[in-house]
Fold these 4 entries.
Entry 1:
Amino acid sequence: MKDPTPKRRRRKDARPGEIINAAMDVFVEHGFAASKLTDVAIRAGVAKGTLYLYFETKEDLFRATARQALTTNLEAVEQSSAAFNGSIADLVPVLLKRAAGRMGDGRIAGIVRMVLAESRAFPDLARIWHDEVVARILGRLAELIAAAQARGEVRAGDPGLFAISIVGPMVLGVLFQEVFGSDSRHAPDLDLLATQHAETVLQGLLAKP
Amino acid sequence: MKDPTPKRRRRKDARPGEIINAAMDVFVEHGFAASKLTDVAIRAGVAKGTLYLYFETKEDLFRATARQALTTNLEAVEQSSAAFNGSIADLVPVLLKRAAGRMGDGRIAGIVRMVLAESRAFPDLARIWHDEVVARILGRLAELIAAAQARGEVRAGDPGLFAISIVGPMVLGVLFQEVFGSDSRHAPDLDLLATQHAETVLQGLLAKP
DNA sequence: TCATTTAGTGACTCAAAAGTCATTAAACGG
DNA sequence: CCGTTTAATGACTTTTGAGTCACTAAATGA
């Protein structure tokens, strides 16, 4: 009689993904140095030794995990920054709303924090993070703003700095939620923030005379 | 003949401050888990055992260090958020300029990053950080905005979210500098950012019709 | 069905770093 | 100047967790 639930399973293909997935949870929760590979193994449902079949060292696993996190979200970025031909006034609210939705759920915020935290120890990851994600978003946005300036739609000014004015408050909002949770009196609702900030950055907060 | 430079010195009062100062450098550089108390001791010019005369454990030293960092900068905050009776249009550029100056030099940016990084492991510190620093800045700013709204100076909207619109881009700029350094093509000059963002958040980035 | 291969295991080794404590010597008071 | 106190030391002990490897058993195929 064949055992339907053998103690071990040999699944060479599935393991790396499962391990990285488990590792992401653990590394996001504790940071690189304070994470224990035993915990990763338990969460992935394998023995510690199994980790070493697929990854040379703890650092190796961390790099693979962070890379995965970054490149996965890269697709989302590509989609968001895809050619948009409307006016800036139309684009900004949509962009910020979409960002609020993406950041609100899932573990993106935690990943951002982890990468921030480890960027000193892993400058190569900081570089990937910069080149593949941050520079793309800011660069694409700056291009769109420059085009809008050429059309006379946006006033004079450094497009790169305008881009920071647009996304900065959303980043702050996300980090606020991530670090302090939503129980703070000052914790922003990300959807409301997206809506109001879009208006603010486009029209200014001063009352019209 | 008296030795003018004895091998040891007994300076019960000065030690804790010196140790915390050394610890701040090390913790900011490596984070809590990856920091070695031996390094702290060397940097403070004492032996490892001496640390344990003044602090129970590594965690204890870390808490004391972070507290010190937060409360020291608190004074700067108090000063910045001191009663300001001009219009919002006058306040915002001054406030952002001052923030740019403070963040640009010194180790404040590093401290912010460290607290962000360790806030999961030390939720009590996150609370202090929140109550003593973040909530004060945002709260004070929100008050000033609400008052300006009452005067008809600022348009309708949530004052707390307006506050985030004001400070968010500066925070992003500081974190950008801290994580990626100033060699990135997109690295913002903090002074320029302060100037342009003040204009943007007050007037909006759309050209006037 | 049995032999062979190799994914998977977890008790073990080993290095690193937290934390201890017997010893040393600076300060101080008589 | 000497005796006493205690800040300071650093070699030592202990703990923790990364990394190893002899062994186990699931798959494969002859």
Entry 2:
Amino acid sequence: MNDKKLKLVDLAKLAGVSTSTVSRALNDNPLIKLETRQKLQRLAKKHNFSLNTAASRLRTQKTNVIAVMINLDGDTEQSINDPFLLKLVGEINLALNKHGLELLLSNSFMASDDWVNYFINSRRADGLIVVGQGKSQANIEAAANAGVPLVVWGDPKTESNYPIVGSDNYLGGRLATERLLEHGAKNVLFLGDPAHAEIGERYRGYLDAVSKAKATPNVLSIDITSKAAYQGINQLLVDKGLCFDGIMACSDMVALGAMKALKERYISIPNDVGLIGFDDISMADISHPSLSTIKQNTQRASIILVEKLLAQLAGQKVNSQVVEIEMINRQSSK
Amino acid sequence: MNDKKLKLVDLAKLAGVSTSTVSRALNDNPLIKLETRQKLQRLAKKHNFSLNTAASRLRTQKTNVIAVMINLDGDTEQSINDPFLLKLVGEINLALNKHGLELLLSNSFMASDDWVNYFINSRRADGLIVVGQGKSQANIEAAANAGVPLVVWGDPKTESNYPIVGSDNYLGGRLATERLLEHGAKNVLFLGDPAHAEIGERYRGYLDAVSKAKATPNVLSIDITSKAAYQGINQLLVDKGLCFDGIMACSDMVALGAMKALKERYISIPNDVGLIGFDDISMADISHPSLSTIKQNTQRASIILVEKLLAQLAGQKVNSQVVEIEMINRQSSK
DNA sequence: AAATTGTTTGCAAACGTTTGCATAAACTTC
DNA sequence: GAAGTTTATGCAAACGTTTGCAAACAATTT
């Protein structure tokens, strides 16, 4: 095995040309004659040559790396166990790859609070995709103000000086609630923490639907986890009995936690209680009864997130954008 | 806002010392007087200075980046939607962070087949963590032979020239099957594709348990997804009726897919059919009935994976290692 | 006070690319 | 065939760190 790492200059020597020529050839620069280009590219492939990214990043001041950070509230367990967020990260990765960009997976532990410094000044990444607004947008705002090219997955209706891509949470919350009401529910419970930006919007949609139907709203504010939902619903049933006949859950995981609590008490879904979630994670389809939900189009959102980030890197000013949602009717809310 | 990116030399000028001194001070090199070091570190913080990683990587030939790649079989849907793999990635990230390392999320799309070149020669990363052995280990073997520092999450009993960290899949498969048999099952079905390395081991454990009980084995080979499991079990029930009274599923997602199929036909779990999964994803606890499973200790595995990789980077020869599993008894297999 | 030792800092040469500018070669055009 | 134009390549200077070695300074010993 040829252990010696080849450099541009070695390749140049082998081909009898200058390093400039090789460099240009490998970057497909039309300054170099097509024939020469192809010859050099073949040579590079043959010798298993690959450019030293450190050197080229230093020289070009570009990394072709995008940092993705899952923006967690310190006090929630949602985090790394939420299938929805992880799926989103996976799809962002694919979207980045299509543009030849790489994904640096980050978190607040590494980046602490000064994102400008950590990501941009240090030239770790060219830009930043923040997944989740969390409860506080201070960090994001500071980074955006300091000139970090960034886009955020969150609620696009939030007032902000940075572009946010996300679903129409208000509409989703309203549609789901309306559906429950239309099918006879009188007391729809909102299950989730409205302090969270995206969930707050869903809650607003819920409120509007409820008040339009002249029903009374009812919130159970919990952490965004299935366990919290399970415990919360259990407790509520113990305390007040079955005081609702519909649940608009702020996420599928939360809905599934609620579902378990209901099933354990032989409360029929959807007959006694209609249940609708949000996200359309793969478990929604596989639960029993299958879970009605508002599907967020993560694939499309990922593509848009990346496009907007690239536009920003190209110096354009970009705006927030809503990604269409879809109501998926399954068994839990017939 | 101070837009001009500070360099080492600027900071040096500000402090009235040489760049060497600043560089050493920021790296906490004891050659520099403690007092000077602290002064310079304060100065750096005050001016929001941070080192250009591209430059320092070029100079030191180290990146402090580890590439993590989810090794998918092209023909399976398991991939990015499998909560277990994603959770593992999340925990590997945390484990890396503790050592000051960053995670580059990669996949076969970017890295194609020549991992040496893509990751190491190009100095994108110092080492590689491969999540999943897949059905073919050719790529991994080639990379290991070519000297890529790498560790693999998979079945540690597989013969290999690279270290594998993973659960005792044989034992897990055996324990779960034994439990089903002990509780009266006569016909335990193995649900999963034994061609997959880890699953093959679980299958061996299953086989041994079954033959020890003088029962007859029965496999339904399917893709590692809940959907495939749902369809597979449905089809089997249509074709042959309820020809089993226990299912050893190769993963929790698969088990949950099977669970849905059973519940839809009012087949009682665990009375008619006992069901045990593998992984202990968060849904296992929240399903109804809750899913008995073999818990894989991903957190510990992640820590070990990183330690082994670091040892390898330090030039040590490291071996495969088994991470303990735990049988979690829940309702689905009483 | 000179010589020796130990401590702290600075000089300058790398690391391996990319790219503006200069040059050389090959064609046009008058 | 000289001058201009186009095309293809090479020269050499960056990019911003780190680090071996030398130097300066301080402390100790002779």
Entry 3:
Amino acid sequence: MMVHNEDLGLTLSLNFPAAGDTNPMPPLVSSSPSFNFPLITTPNWSDSCPSSSDRHNVDAYKVETRSFLKGIDVNRIPAPAAEAEEEAGVSSPNSTISSISGKRNERDLPVNEIDGERSSSRGISDDEDGENSRKKLRLSKDQSAVLEESFKEHNTLNPKQKQALAKRLGLRPRQVEVWFQNRRARTKLKQTEVDCEFLKRCCENLTEENRRLQKELQELRTLKLSPQFYMQMAPPTTLTMCPSCERVGASPSEKSIDQQHNMARVTTTNQIHHRTLPFNPWSTPSGQVVQRQMSALHPRS
DNA sequence: TGTAGCAACACACTTACGTCA
DNA sequence: AATGACGTAAGTGTGTTGCTA
């Protein structure tokens, strides 16, 4: 299986998935206060992204026995180290399924077996003892393809999955872990770019809409100031409302309700200098545009 | 029951290396 | 051949979470 960079699942779309769709690339949950766009991300995206507390539990073993792609040619296999690390991580400490309270039972393992993976990420490079200190490994396309396949299934790995994947690819578990971290970062970056583009378009649309409304308002004001228009206006209307039946008598020609009910008079005549026009922004085409934009921002509302 | 210590993890940020035009 | 841009593997710092004493 050959993949190219543009095939690695980084093609994101502004299209909102249809109901029931599962976005293959859900936004990642960040524990740190990062810049995100909650209005843009669709709800089912977050539904498909488990929280950090349970992400290891449900999805972890769902695909565990999933048959990966067929054997991979490895460009480098640190066989002894890999074997040691495989033995170290099989206990799946994060799983509440395999071990109820064994989340951190890697502690029980000998030190030299525990931290072959971890030490490499915290200063004690496992390459430093060797001939290649931080020699950058370029993953083969087959390895990348397998990792991509796995990432599509679940964008995080529990230790057991990590071990299995590492063993399958002939990589160190740390390498698999790093690959998934970087992959999640790339996904998030891509999603952020898409979100920014979407918001940019929203801003442009709203700016244009605002411009149009300002223009419309100006025209209406101009129209209002013309005497011809003013003469055509109906006299101020006095509405009366019955406090008991809450009926409103609007027409001056009608027998007023207050005469019938001896009620208080509610004057809606504009007692301000600028008489407003019967203009409902939500019923105008512009309002429809705004509503469309609002519904785009809140797809479920 | 509350809490400190620890380990494991994820993420943001950065560095360093490989590839390509 | 040299070089800068770019992609990405890997290192580092920090916050969170769950377990244990």
Entry 4:
Amino acid sequence: MEQHVIDTLKEHKLRTTSCRENTLGIFLSRDMALSHGDLEATLGDRFDRVTIYRTLRTFLDKGIIHKVLDDEGVRYALCRDSCSEHNHHHDHVHFKCNECGQTNCLENLHVPAVQLPKGYQAREVNLLIQGLCASCSDN
Amino acid sequence: MEQHVIDTLKEHKLRTTSCRENTLGIFLSRDMALSHGDLEATLGDRFDRVTIYRTLRTFLDKGIIHKVLDDEGVRYALCRDSCSEHNHHHDHVHFKCNECGQTNCLENLHVPAVQLPKGYQAREVNLLIQGLCASCSDN
DNA sequence: CTCTAAATGCAATACTGCTGCAAAAATAGG
DNA sequence: CCTATTTTTGCAGCAGTATTGCATTTAGAG
């Protein structure tokens, strides 16, 4: 497994185990939001379902991945930059294509500020846009 | 049960049944996003789980309620205005308080336009803001 | 190499959401 | 008001998702 993966695990003070290396490797290579089911389809013959669940929760806790919610359920995507256990960046834009079903994190977009009612304080913002992605709107 | 509830059901060409009256009444009185589990906790002794699921789906189809997604799962909230079976407004801002756990629909806010990458087409937009609500940020 | 704490696999369990079918209830028409 | 028709409900059962407890195995520190 790649050195980069091992380094990332070490940075977050996680033991480098086979399941974690593989899971992180898949996130890096697929570059889209993945569900537990997606991971199980790839890793299920080598690792227990429960281990994959626990790996995802560990990665969540450490800020390696973040949750992505659409109307079909929970997925997970890599946190590209500044996220860590105590310092998450609180601004995620996700796009789900209703045609191909892929959900992606739009990294370079930011959520415009919203004027909240008096007394409300925002800590985290998640914007989910559903529609057609570039490849699917060609057809 | 209140006349307003019955009228609402009739407007959407739904038979006025006990489960629908009660469910709609709860949405009106609680005025926050509710999960199936919330409803089951209140109605579960009088109506079957499945009936509650079907009631929710019927209300969804008719545009009486809409889905709300937060990090914990799916909830439902009343559509205040212009939604109907064929004319939904696709622009929802929801606020979840991390302190009291309540999720609310911020009716008068709209999602600011976002510049999507080339070729992307938006059909529906959901903005979830998490933080502290007015009552919880006082303390 | 050994020891210890962390991670894993397995079994069991709970929760969430759906389907098919028979019984019950709601409305339209007389 | 009564009946016929259509819709809705309850029940049983199923599938997918997610969690916990515990015994075993493994990673990494010394």
